[in-house]
Amino acid sequence: MKLSCENNHIWSRFHAAINESATAAPRLQRRTCQSRGICDSLVNETLGEAQIRPLTDEVIGKTRLCWEYQHVGDFKNMSTFMASLEITGAVIRPDDAGYDEARTAWNLTVHHRPALIVVAKNTQDVVSAVQFAANEGLSVAVQSTGHGTIRQADQDALLILTSGLNQLQVDAERQTAWVGAGLKWGEVVTAAQLHGLTPLFGASPIVGAVGYTVGGGVGWFGRKFGLAVDSVIRFEVVISNGEIINASATENSDLFWAICGGGGAFGVITRMEIKLYPVTQVYGGNLLYPVEAAKDVYRFYREWIKTLPDEFTTSIVLMNFPNFQSVPEFLRGTTGVMIRGAYVGSVQEGAAYIQQWLDWRVPTANMFQPMPVSEMHTISNDPVDPVPSMTTGAYLRELSDAAIDSIIRYGVQRNGSAPLIFVEVRHMGGAISRIDSNANAFSHRDQSLNLYMVGMTPIPDTMTLFKHYTRQFKRDLTSALSGGAYLNFLEGAEARGRVREGYTPEKFERLKAIKAKHDPDNRFGYSYNIPVN
Ligand SMILES: Cc1cc2nc3c(=O)[nH]c(=O)nc-3n(C[C@H](O)[C@H](O)[C@H](O)COP(=O)(O)OP(=O)(O)OC[C@H]3O[C@@H](n4cnc5c(N)ncnc54)[C@H](O)[C@@H]3O)c2cc1C
């Protein structure tokens, strides 16, 4: 019996089915074939010598994926098309030369190995890919940049890359923009700033706008204007049956509610319409203090943020500066405490708040200055090149003295002992907490301190160390933790394992019901694992 098929995924399923039937019975039973696409045609056919032959490359081309099953022996008369998939972008199979490059994520610890990759160029490509996945019983995984992979795409998944969905339309008059699912925040900021407008972006200019937004989106405008997700007007979504629908406060409003915080568990978002805000400059930057002053700096920060207006969104960071070329030489290998943030208002007002620090204690460096919105990514200065990293987080009730001691104990690198690059506490509140808590699925708006930890984890041992270390760190902090999780700051198994903590129990129940309605087969199971009721 000779079988050949260029698609390993289909091959292995078919092969297993044939093996089973060859040993068990001469007929291929429906129950022995897991591949819905071919099962219907093959069921009750007598199994004989079969050859599965892919169409020639000229036919497949880059734009059309099509397998033909040509059978010899008992299958002579049967010509089954497993699928006929029209794709403007590209379809990449495991044996194709571009497979390894395409499955790469920004985070180098992520190793997708999907059955098939579809590089979508337009919404119709996403429709074709979702329909194909549904016919074949494949799950759908989605990647924009690979900054926040929730579950690595495996052999039972079709991975849709959204990077080609890069349409961007700014409506300066309405102060809105349509943002394609492949766009990164830096690209959206640049286009909006041409009109004196800004979206509610995050720390890094290369994080995907849609992926960031559907998880909530805590950025430097958070206390002034709210979360990124609070400024979405509508999503264009491809749902599990391949239908393209709009979700907004007035159309498919349950789905809109769910995606706003529930992420990609309900469909593939192909673009979103968002509000923009008329801001071109902030007073932003960092203050750096030596690690020896850490305890006093945290205590001063604790009192200082109580006085801040919504215009000032800040964080405090314990930073172990890596030995990288991009880090100024005098900082490499050292640890410091940084106060960072952006004041949305006049330079004088912003500077007056920073002056309180300067009057309290002279910092090692004061990098606060008037800053164009397009330069705000320099506040966090997140890495642009792909890195192997892990993140985790939790909400803090308070920066008690005991919590400060834990942060310093676990956050400071001593002889290479701490696997953390930095520990950041972001100050929430302001507009984030004032928006109606039932407005969308995003939960825990009342939390005021958001803890975020990041480590470099180039080898499996360092990944294991990071997990143990941060678990211990959080245990040490227990009395200061308020429960709940900000899912954008979790990733991988932890994001899925702690998904319930991302929501209030009532919202989680509602998410389950909406999931059951829109994705009953859990086609989008490579996102947050929201079970079907
Ligand atoms: C360096 C860095 C800086 C960050 N800064 C911030 C910050 O300031 N504030 C903050 O809130 N978060 C921040 N994050 C977290 C970030 O918002 C999440 O990791 C987010 O999920 C990244 O989205 P992405 O599309 O870039 O990543 P991806 O890994 O491509 O996507 C993450 C997940 O989002 C879903 N998804 C993405 N696009 C779609 C789509 N079109 N349709 C359906 N599902 C989709 C998928 O489930 C996917 O697994 C940061 C992360 C990093 C690594």
General description of the model:
The protein is α+β, with helices and mostly antiparallel strands and 533 residues long. Among the domains are: 8-86, no CATH class; 281-501, Vanillyl-alcohol Oxidase, Chain A, domain 3 (3-Layer(aba) Sandwich). It is 29% helix and 23% strand. The protein is built from 16 helices and 20 strands. The chain has helices at 8-24, 36-42, 57-60, 99-102, 123-136, 185-193, 209-214, 222-225, 253-262, 294-304, 347-360, 401-411, 431-434, 460-476, 492-497, 505-518, and strands at residues 50-54, 64-71, 79-86, 90-92, 116-119, 139-143, 157-161, 168-171, 176-180, 232-238, 244-248, 268-275, 281-290, 312-320, 335-343, 365-366, 369-372, 389-396, 422-427, 449-456. The strands form four sheets. Strands 13, 14, 15, 16, 17, 18, 19 and 20 form an eight-stranded antiparallel β-sheet that branches. Strands 8-9-12-10-11 form a five-stranded antiparallel β-sheet. It has a four-stranded mixed β-sheet with strand order 4-5-7-6, with helices on one face. Strand 8 (168-171) and strand 9 (176-180) form a beta hairpin. The longest helix has 17 residues, at 8-24. It is globular. The chain starts with 7 loop residues before the first helix and ends in a 15-residue tail after the last helix. The model is unreliable at 1-84 (pLDDT under 50). Bound molecules: flavin-adenine dinucleotide. Flavin-adenine dinucleotide binds at residues 142-150, 162, 181, 202-204, 207-208, 210-212, 215-219, 263-264, 268-269, 382, 488, 527.
Summarize this structure briefly.
The protein has about 525 residues and is α+β, with helices and mostly antiparallel strands. It is built from 16 helices and 20 strands. It has helices at about 10-25, 35-40, 55-60, 100, 125-135, 185-195, 210-215, 220-225, 255-260, 295-305, 345-360, 400-410, 430-435, 460-475, 490-495, 505-520; strands at about 50-55, 65-70, 80-85, 90, 115-120, 140-145, 155-160, 170, 175-180, 230-240, 245-250, 270-275, 280-290, 310-320, 335-345, 365, 370, 390-395, 420-425, 450-455.
